[in-house]
Amino acid sequence: MTSLIASGARAVSTEALKPLDTFERRHNSGTTQEVAEMCAVIGFKDIDALIDATVPENIRLKKTMDMGEYTQPLTESEFLTMMKNMASKNKVFKNYIGTGYHGTHVPTVILRNILENPGWYTQYTPYQAEASQGRLESLLNFQTMITDLTGMPLSNSSLLDEGTAAAEAMTMCSALNRGKKPKFYVSNKCHPQTIAVVQTRAEGLGLEAVVGDENSFDYTAKDVCGVLVQYPATDGSIIDYKPIVSQAQANGIRVVAAADLLSLTMLQPPGEWGADIVIGSSQRFGVPMGYGGPHAAFLATTHDCKRLMPGRIIGESIDAEGKPALRMAMQTREQHIRRDKATSNICTAQALLANIAAMYGVYHGPEGLKQIAKRSHDFAAVFAAGAEKLGFKNTTPEFFDTVTLKCPSGADAIVKACASAGINIRKMDADHVSLAFDETTEIADVDALFKVFAGGAAAPTVAQVAPSVNTTMPMARKSEFMTHPVFNQYHSEHEMVRYLKRLEEKDLSLVHSMIALGSCTMKLNATTEMIPITWPELANIHPFAPKDQTLGYQEMFRGLEKQLCEITGFDAMSLQPNSGASGEYAGLMGIRAYHQSRGDHHRDVCIIPVSAHGTNPASAAMCGMKIVVIGTDAKGNINVAELKAAAEKHSANLAALMVTYPSTHGVYEEDIKEICEVIHQHGGQVYMDGANMNAQVGLTSPGFIGADVCHLNLHKTFCIPHGGGGPGMGPIGVKAHLAPFMPDHPSMKDGAVAVGGDKPFGVVAAAPYGSALILPISFSYIAMMGSEGLANASKRAILNANYMSKRLEDYYPVLFSGKNDTCAHEFILDMRPIKDATGVEVADIAKRLMDYGFHSPTMSWPVAGTLMIEPTESESKAELDRFCDALIAIRGEIRDIEDGKVDRENNVLKNAPHTAEVVTAKEWNRPYPRDLGAFPVEWTRSHKFWPQTSRIDDVYGDRNLVASRAAVEVAVAQTA
Ligand SMILES: *Cc1c(COP(=O)(O)O)cnc(C)c1O
């Protein structure tokens, strides 16, 4: 016995009891062996030598980040336990607050197959339309649903939230008058957060938002561009706005209606009573409230306003075979082309949420939606009748789903009584409360309400009250909607799940292959990071729920702020902006408010390098700033001499510099500290565009470098998935002197939850914490990586970029590099010499990559005729190699053209991508074998991604804009 034990004896070390696997190993994907191999290829002894040679010494952080309790990494299971514990501090009350946010049942078939499915949520914005037909179809469904419900001919897909959609509508009204009518009327019956967002936006644009009773506005005034009304109004009442429409329009004032989508299944749509623009949120179509977002807003309008329409529009065009195909229409309106003259500053929007809302429409169909609406209305009617019996007067006799009641003993008492029964209602003022009913309301819920409202006296029940309630709908809708087959044939779960799968399979996402999008950081969106977002404790919280019900959220926000402050080197964070562009706008408005607080109202010049992202000039324009563009030098760096001259010239009026670091050319500029100093010397503030944080985290930081404010794209560097074009979050970090100016929110006026500074410049998003529901994704990423893991991620991102650049440099010239001939986390391949020699354009290479199973890197930005590659830390060496192999093989195909072996026009590149239909067609008359088109490399034979259409003709579609399903059907019929 003794000897047996002795021979098997093994001392247990504490080391051996540590978790077996760390999250970092899954996220930073190369192994130690692979890292060594890659370093050898680049010619460095190890990764630290590469980093030392790449990141300038004077901006290098000398110590690891101290994120307090988040410094040491958590394992995935440790994180989930911690997060569950935190989330459980939120209280999920029965909710009737309304105000633009409502309970909804996310159909589980949509929950599992879209929201929880990386095949949908890891897609990129559908710039490569041939590999995006699935989501483009779904977004077209969204547009069709919105046009049908609003009664307008044209809709976009999609905007950030209802508040910003209203602000965009105001901008449109102003632009329709070429900015010559600076006033915009806003009815005081709009939702308070909408009014606040519009007011702030007006301030920056130099417009005036006049808030008041829509019946007392002067509609004969000559300086008014538009009027905004809410339908039904924020108190729930249904108002006939026709008299206002005729007065306003007689004088050229446009009418904007903020409408509740579900109500439009029962109410005459604004398009039928003459509105020019209809905006709203699609949240209650199957997207959880999530403490404020993300949700897809919409904007619908008439055809003559199409060029001024904000956001993305999906439209039909034709492909090279002459077949109908979808793609994003009229992109020339957008900021990546038009910069400060863009129609809007929507880059990342809410594509994933628009898809969910559209699928909710597909699943329920028009009849299902009507039933949901009718039932919500009936509950409101029954409740109102019962409450009247109890002495509460209904002040909204004409309502859809929301009623406002005058309370015999004041609003506070009943709000409090409800709260102690686990119920949230909305306090309108000292005497009134309002309640909104929705899809999730049940009979027992209303019985529970009656009990509270009876205040101890005998309470009626739904069963007693309902039979005597007669409801009529004023302004009842008579027209049909959503008659297209897509909304009428997928109502069983089998049909639905197959439709979802069919669309998913048309699209290339991160589940297929790496998406090496320069400046758009498509890294791993880990499953564990995504788990919490569907927990009811996080998903089912109304954004205006009282503070004592959201302690879990508050704790998470404070944790995330702490993490992000340390990462950016800033003193405070605002978690309100819900996109990168929105962060830029918020940061610049903060800078503006700071200058004004010092009496410097004249400081309005913003210096922006030519290489900046289009959102930068567009944001500056939204803040009323004058843009001074400066150039770059031969290496892609900011031209420091030109910058100095500009700062000197505009010294008295300098407001800010907007700078991206490392530069959009993928280079760490040595002069960045000096650049910041120059701006400060002239009294300006430095705005750093933090989209490239993936090359900074743990190595340097905007605060350390000398910036005053910076936004972070949490949907790039911090793992929120791109969702096919959104959601995103763009929080801003600031130095202490700017903290007082951070945005606040009207829902927080009672001090419910701390948000913003004490001298806030205004409100940038409809909800106080923007798209709060997706913040746990970034929070978990940081917590599971820990300080060292994050720094390693930046190092690996730089290593991977340099490795690829090295492997490719003999085939394609690499544009720009840093001091030691290395690049940062991304690099640019110059395709212009190829075009000159062979006529092959960058688009041909991009489309040919699809035949190899890859999404193209960023095309022609920031330099026309180039590809910008950003591999990220998450890709394994095998995947990096596969991508390089594809590009190298394509170089061979180009060489054949160069050598005159194949035709310049009729070849695999010009004809790319190759669909299954084309390569299996009866006729084949191309000068290369069919399988060279479809199976150019071995791996495509075992797992082939098939592009769905041949090359799409953008220009054709823009000339004949067709942007909804019914319209498409007609167009097909006409061409057939
Ligand atoms: C992505 C990006 C933005 C804009 O962010 P959105 O969330 O799309 O609005 C701004 N600047 C740079 C450099 C970016 O890459």
From TrEMBL:
InterPro entries: GcvP, GDC-P_C, GDC-P_N, GDC_P, PyrdxlP-dep_Trfase, PyrdxlP-dep_Trfase_major, PyrdxlP-dep_Trfase_small
Top-tier EC class: oxidoreductase
Location within or outside the cell: Mitochondrion
Location of the Glycine dehydrogenase C-terminal domain: 793-914
EC numbers for this chain: 1.4.4.2
Cofactor(s) listed: pyridoxal 5'-phosphate
Gene Ontology cellular component list: apoplast; chloroplast envelope; glycine cleavage complex; mitochondrion
Keyword Transit peptide: yes
Modified residues (N6-(pyridoxal phosphate)lysine): 716
Recorded family membership: Belongs to the GcvP family.
Protein name, UniProt field: Glycine cleavage system P protein
Organism (species): Ostreococcus lucimarinus (strain CCE9901)
